[in-house]
Specification:
CATH superfamily of the largest domain: P-loop containing nucleotide triphosphate hydrolases
Strand order of the largest sheet: 6-7-8-3-9-10
Bound molecules: adenosine-5'-triphosphate, magnesium ion
Distance between the termini: 26 Å
CATH architecture of the largest domain: 3-Layer(aba) Sandwich
Number of strands: 10
Strand content: 15-25%
Number of helices: 10
Shape: globular
Helix content: 25-40%
Order of helices and strands: EEEHEEHEHHHEHEHEEHHH
CATH class of the largest domain: Alpha Beta
CATH topology of the largest domain: Rossmann fold
Length: 297
């Protein structure tokens, strides 16, 4: 049974239907990517799933039980936690204090050393190097993100919604984040990974749901885990081909073009940019989109 289910989610803002009948099934132990261009409705969906927004229509189920989440706190109490695009930490507090902040289960007088040990322990367990005593104002963006993740884990999140977490990271930090994501899934948690970068999506996802204009336009799953072993650009090209066949070239063309731009190449005309095979935008590029370890053979 999926740990988290969305059915027919509709969320309207003045003049725009940000989510227009979205269905989603998130499974424990899996990285479930939501892929889509700017404005597709990814963040809105995540905000509904974590309790930040109430949907206008549709329902959310956790472990099969229909729930009404009134706040992110409510979501966390049921094991759903979100790490936002823009962090929500208090600069003048330490890492450990930020983790404890707003946690009603903390004693009135903080047991700081216990808290620091727990925070450090969680960081170690999931490959998130953090310094519990450091002040948040002194941290790099990557460290701040790790604090947000640890904070979510500390509250007992079983499903972690990560909204474009790689946007603020260096390539090295992205690798580290993906290790953490895999460790969380290996521990039986589920990760909802939001991105518009096809290359990294291919690398880390077990399942991909594509959104456009508030709707789900495609859904693909990594068929066979042996393919994780493949490590060359041909595997990536083949993955893309599979992906395109199932989802349609037209849908992916803008993302493929963006990927080509990011890797320092000029995308050709869109027919070329979306053509696959080894002549695709990935072949032979020095800025090959990051290690090709994805399950998408
Ligand atoms: N709080 C809001 N008030 C009004 N409109 C909003 C609000 N949040 C999102 N929207 C609109 O809803 C649509 C979906 O936005 P959303 O932020 O969910 O997309 P996204 O896929 O996360 O995009 P991005 O890649 O830019 O983060 C967009 O048209 C956006 O302008
Ligand atoms: Mg967004």
């Amino acid at each position: 049974m999926p740990v988290l289910t969305a059915r027919g989610i509709v969320k309207r803002f003045p003049g725009v239907v940000a989510n227009d009948g979205v269905d989603l099934d998130v499974t424990r132990g899996e990285v479930h990517t939501i892929l889509g261009e700017n404005g597709a409705g990814k963040s809105t969906l995540a905000a509904v799933l974590c309790g930040l927004y109430r949907p206008d229509e549709g329902e959310v189920r956790i472990d099969g039980e229909r729930v009404t989440l009134h706040s992110p706190r409510d979501g966390l109490a049921r094991g759903i936690g979100m790490v936002h695009q823009h962090f929500r930490l208090v600069d003048r507090f330490t890492v450990a204090e930020n983790v404890a902040l707003g946690d009603e289960s903390q004693p009135v007088v903080l047991d700081t050393s216990r808290l620091e040990r727990e925070v450090a322990g969680l960081g170690e367990r999931f490959g998130l190097p953090i310094r519990p005593r450091a002040r948040v104002s002194d941290l790099s963006v990557g460290e701040r993100q790790r604090v947000e993740i640890v904070k979510t884990l500390y509250r007992g999140a079983e499903v972690l919604l990560l909204d474009e977490p790689t946007a603020v990271l260096t390539p090295h930090e992205v690798d580290a984040l993906f290790s953490t994501v895999r460790a969380m899934c290996a521990a039986g948690k589920a990760v909802v990974f939001i991105s518009h970068k096809l290359g990294e999506v291919m690398e880390v996802s077990d399942r991909i749901t594509v959104m456009r204009d508030g709707r789900v336009t495609g859904d693909v799953r990594a068929a066979d885990t042996d393919r994780r072993e493949q490590t060359d650009e041909q595997a990536m090209a083949k993955a893309l081909e599979t992906f395109e066949t199932r989802l349609g070239k037209e849908l992916l063309a803008p993302m493929i073009e963006e990927m080509a731009r990011e890797s320092g190449q000029t995308a050709g005309p869109s027919s070329e940019a979306s053509s696959l095979g080894t002549d695709g935008p990935w072949s032979g590029s020095p800025a090959e989109p990051r290690g090709v370890r994805g399950p998408w053979g």
